[in-house]
Amino acid sequence: MSDWHDKFGSDGKTSPKPTVVQNSPVKIVVDTLVSNNPEQVWQQVQGKLRALLGDRVHMSWTGQLALQSADEAHVVLSVPSKFVAGRIDGKYGDLVRKLWAECDTRRVEIGNGASKLEMPAQMSTHAQPSSSQTAQRNKPFSNKQAGSNKQAGSNKQAGSNKQAGSNKHAGSSQQVGGQVHAQNQLQNKDRFTFDNFVVGGPNELAFAVARRVASALESQYNPIVIHGPHGMGKTHLLYAVKAEAAKKDPSRRVRLITAEDFVASFVQSVRAQGRTEIDAFKSSLRDVDLLIIDDAHFIADKPGSQEELMHTLISLVDSGKQILLASDRHPQAINKASERLKSYLCGGLLCDIGAADYDLRLRILDRLIERRRAGGHPALAMPSDARDHLAARINATPRDLEGAFNQVVARLEFLGKPLTLESIQEALAHSRYTGQARPTVDKIQRATAKQFGISMEEMLSKRRARAIARPRQVAMYLAKMLTTRSLPDIGRRFGGRDHTTVIHAVKRIDQLRAEDSGLNSNIETLLETFNG
Asked: Which CATH class is domain 358-434?
């Protein structure tokens, strides 16, 4: 009975043949079952998506989809941008595919005009493909995986036919998914270059040392440890070193490995209980000119792996090979590390990446805006007061700053809200990045008066001397930037002034910041103070 359903489906009609999946991380296809009016089908699918995901998630993501066109073979669901298409495909594509497949036989395509994301045929929850169709679908991977497929086939023959068929289907899905995941990971790391790294005071030493290592010049420091909290750009630097080293000298043997892979490979070689496997593991790490290890602190949590790391470091240093490691903490702060390992790591060069200061955060924001413009939003613009506010309020890691930036830009992309100081304050009102208490207008007035050497009485007075009026304008500017007070409210708190006076002050200070470096320096100092 199940074979009849597999071949014909529940309505007795022959199910369409699955479409061949293209060997690409972007283009995938799905086939479905019963033909209906596409508009009616889409209304049903939208209703089910809203019920399953909730109004909020549906409005933010799947609700962005719209029925663009339809013919007898397929329908096209359009989305605003490549970013949205990628998110929907990655998080909700299977659900959209499944719900549509319950009603209609047309092939579903998701895209934004020329760039379409089609859905995976092998993920369909309905008719299972025949073995010949499965072989055809996996054909793009057959050359690379011939050896593993042959071995997998011999293993399947040892079990029952039913179990072998199940393993074969699972293996096929894992191969396709693994290829796409690995390719996506590689693409993500491709942007980790020195040119894309934003340099500032807190990371300039680590950056300079990383460039020196990548240049293949002899180093007087070995091993080199770059340490700092997560999200500070350590992994970015490691991949930049690897890419630059390969560019400058293709013959140079460079190995970059994460601590997780180091431990997993070591454990696997030990469990194999053969000298060949252990020797192969050691050779993979020691027959190199440059060994790079990310998250090295993780290895210290495993006694056996820690000992092997120690022997590897000694062997490479004695051979004159370079070692570069990244850690979330100073070697002395790695609790489970042996004193010998701590001493060895500290005997090289330690490069600390400190917290991003206000100036570095501004540079990072500028780079994020440039990247977003190059990625399909050429008209993206952020007013200087909004940019300054974002840099001042997000006193966190560069990764957190990028997260806050994405949160702000998403409101522009999905809701059509312009990037203004007000929209950014609204977007970050309940964000974890701005958990600290907002400064009050009174606190801003007192801090500004102290910074410029005037009294509070002068700050609130009617005097218009520049030595008093300019600090007053700065305080109004900061009150507009850092608080949620309305313009009339801010004006009243400055001696009963009108809201137009506040508007003039904000525009004037915004202009002077670009012209007067001394004034701008005072404002940045105040922003750092309020940012805690």
From this structure: mainly alpha
What is the C-alpha separation between 108 and 2, in angstroms, rounded? Answer: 26
Burial state string for 77-98 with b = 16 or more CB within 10 A and e = fewer than 16: bbbebbbbbbbbbeebbbbbbb
For the domain 441-531, what is the CATH superfamily, name and number?
A: DnaA protein, C-terminal DNA-binding domain (1.10.1750.10)
Judged against a pLDDT cut of 90, whether residue 453 lies above it is answered with: yes
pLDDT of residue 179 exceeding 70, the answer is no
Collapse the DSSP code of 120 into the 3-class scheme (helix H, G, I; strand E, B; otherwise coil) and give the result.
coil
Most confident of 12-16, 82-86, 95-99, 251-255: 251-255
How sure is the predictor about 154, in pLDDT bands with cuts at 50, 70 and 90? Answer: very low
Whole-number Å distance between alpha carbons of 336 and 338: 6
CA dihedral of 104, 108, 113, 116, whole degrees rounded to 10: 180
Continuous segment of H or E residues that includes residue 259: helix 259-271
- E strands within 187-253? 224-227
Q: What is the mean pLDDT of residues 154-173?
A: 42
224, two tokens: 């080199």
